[in-house]
Design goal:
Blueprint: H1 9-24, H2 32-38, H3 43-54, H4 58-76, H5 81-87, H6 93-104, H7 108-116, H8 124-129
């Protein structure tokens, strides 16, 4: 990828904002329209500029973030592959396993067997209780008694 292919400097800040949103909310349902809206660009223009700048499509970027987080959870927790699949934002175990194998080179189960026994595992109840797998952020939560908008 050449430097001339990336987005103009005045647009980079908008692309970074959308990328940062994807990094923080990887487990949430994210689509091209939502990320383009965050970047304040049309979805087609956003897709072209994001791909030119980062070398991957927005969907690939989100998928890779999810796989990275899944690797962390497979190494360090006693959660099942299915629980991890859902926790990182995949809606299908089949698509998760296929994508994981494409990115990592082995299935999630093989990865977990190989790396999971190297260190003590964090019990799944602690993972969810302490927010190590997040399904929303504290800043989005409403104080008790306040009605959602």
């Amino acid at each position: 990828m050449s430097l001339t292919a990336r987005a103009p400097d005045h647009v980079l800040v908008h692309l970074r904002h959308a990328r940062d949103h994807a990094d923080r909310h990887y487990a949430d349902p994210l689509d091209l329209e939502q990320l383009a809206s965050i970047a304040a660009l049309s979805k087609y223009h956003f897709h072209r500029l994001f791909t030119a700048t980062y070398g991957v499509t927005p969907a690939t970027y989100v998928s890779e973030r999810r796989i990275e987080r899944a690797q962390d959870l497979l190494r360090s927790t006693n959660l099942t592959v299915t629980e991890i699949c859902v926790a990182v934002g995949f809606s299908s175990l089949g698509s998760f396993s296929t994508r994981f194998r494409q990115v990592v080179g082995e299935t999630p189960s093989e990865f977990q067997r190989r790396y999971g026994r190297r260190s003590p595992r964090i019990p799944g109840c602690y993972v969810f209780m302490w927010g190590l797998v997040e399904r929303g952020t504290a800043s989005e939560e409403k104080p008790p008694g306040e009605s959602p908008s």
